[in-house]
Design a protein that fits this description.
The chain has 484 residues and is α/β, with parallel strands linked by helices. The protein has helices at residues 38-53, 61-77, 79-90, 94-118, 155-168, 183-194, 213-218, 232-243, 267-279, 299-312, 331-346, 383-386, 402-410, 425-434, 467-474, and strands spanning 2-4, 6-8, 11-13, 18-22, 29-34, 123-126, 134-142, 145-149, 172-176, 202-204, 225-229, 249-252, 257-261, 289-295, 350-353, 373-376, 393-399, 417-421, 439-442, 461-462, 475-483. The protein folds into 2 domains: 2-253 and 460-483, 3-Layer(aba) Sandwich (Aldehyde Dehydrogenase, Chain A, domain 1); 257-449, Aldehyde Dehydrogenase, Chain A, domain 2 (3-Layer(aba) Sandwich), CATH 3.40.309.10. It is globular. Bound molecules: nicotinamide-adenine-dinucleotide and (2E,4E)-2-amino-6-oxohexa-2,4-dienoic acid.
Length: 484
Amino acid sequence: MKQFRNFINGEFVATEKKFEKRSPLDNSVIGMVHEAGKKEVDAAVDAARAALKGPWGSMTIAQRVDMLYAVANEIDRRFEDFLAAEVADTGKPRSLASHIDIPRGAANFKIFADVVKNVPTEFFEMATPDGRGALNYAVRRPVGVVGVICPWNLPLLLMTWKVGPALACGNAVLVKPSEETPQTATLLGEVMNSVGMPKGVYNVLHGFGPGSAGEFITTHRGVNAITFTGETRTGAAIMKAAADGARPVSLEMGGKNPAIVFADADLDVALDGVMRSCFVNCGQVCLGTERVYVERPIFDTFVSKLKAGAEKLKIGRPDEKDVGMGPLISLEHRNKVLSYYRKAVEEGATVVTGGGVPNMPGEMAEGAWIQPTIWIGLGDDAAIAREEIFGPCTLVMPFDSEEEIVARANDTTYGLAASVYTQNINRAHRVAGELEVGLVWVNSWFLRDLRTPFGGAKQSGIGREGGVHSLEFYTEQKNICVKL
Ligand code: NAD
Ligand code: 6OD
């Protein structure tokens, strides 16, 4: 049986307490995860502090940049190992993980190394009454030990999205991967050792949230800042923990993202975007769409084409040819998603396609498989229109005017992302400007330039990361004023 150990001070650390990691494909046990307790978290904090005081803290920016490039190159060299680990943990198609998860895992180290190398700080020359003047300049310093709490949907991508900039800025990290996806964070420990990363800079602590590694990291006063991706409710709990010691948080949380398709949209472009945003990664993408608004003249056509697209998706094992959708992450998560499938019907939805569990052969019948699902016939008050489901499903609703649709799209406590499909450039800019979200895509979805600000409005997030915005969280600026 595989063992997924903690990684502390450059060593793989076993613990007495373990839990099972099960495959989403057939619910078989694929490994045992060693759960970190307070003792391991204390050891990781001590190791991180020592690294900051020692070799890591005294490296020049150029040396850190070289180190991060080496990490990225080593992930590339071990691409197949990372791919196998990510696919085993999540059950997602290999084609998806090999195009998105793993390459982005490597890119996240390079892009932030480049940002840190190239971004200047401020300088102000100042007049003084004695005529001699003063010079002000800002320097950036790492915030110290950063707790990185991660979800399971894009494990390597979302973890390195935070670890990349944190290390580029000179911090040390304590990473808590999701209990569902322990493997790639653990494997990254091997990469850190093989490129000669100083011990204690990168630590991995496995476990759960409350009463486990998540709580022990976020409540530890030796952790100077916490960056989190996950559910809004969890983010709120972490924010409370961080209040003790007045420690900063960066929170990337849940969403209920709309796609708005105007009648003048290029239908093929809109269908391609909406298909991907609803069903890619089995609907487990925070930026994904669970509310599709279609302007009434094209509503029926759009729904029937979306139905055809969903029914063409091949559900299957990660390495099957042309597979379009894997399983959900776990049976527990499937229970949650299926509870919404039932609720939709109870509330009176028409099921256009899906709505249940597909018949899978052999032991795959035990896996977390689910059908891609489209509903119509309910409005904005329905639970499936308001609550984040995080599955391959969407409610499609008609609309009649631009003013109406902006108000309906904004009528939510969330504000992560939206996509707008139209060929009218004025309308595109107008609507994008009015949507209360952190990210808007026009005629596309999940097209990412890593230099841009990323984060959510309302209850979808606090703060922005990406490019120079990440530096605002992972460094502390200090102004030095020199009287001449
Ligand atoms: P989750 O909130 O259940 O768990 C996320 C992480 O927090 C896990 O590692 C978990 O163990 C840990 N955790 C749970 N309770 C904790 C506590 N009290 N203290 C410290 N740590 C705790 O989220 P999930 O189910 O892993 O991921 C799915 C959610 O993540 C969805 O809501 C999705 O929208 C959101 N998400 C958001 C973004 C974004 O960028 N905004 C990206 C990906 C996922
Ligand atoms: O692309 C990214 O950097 C990012 N943070 C994506 C988030 C996806 C959510 O599931």
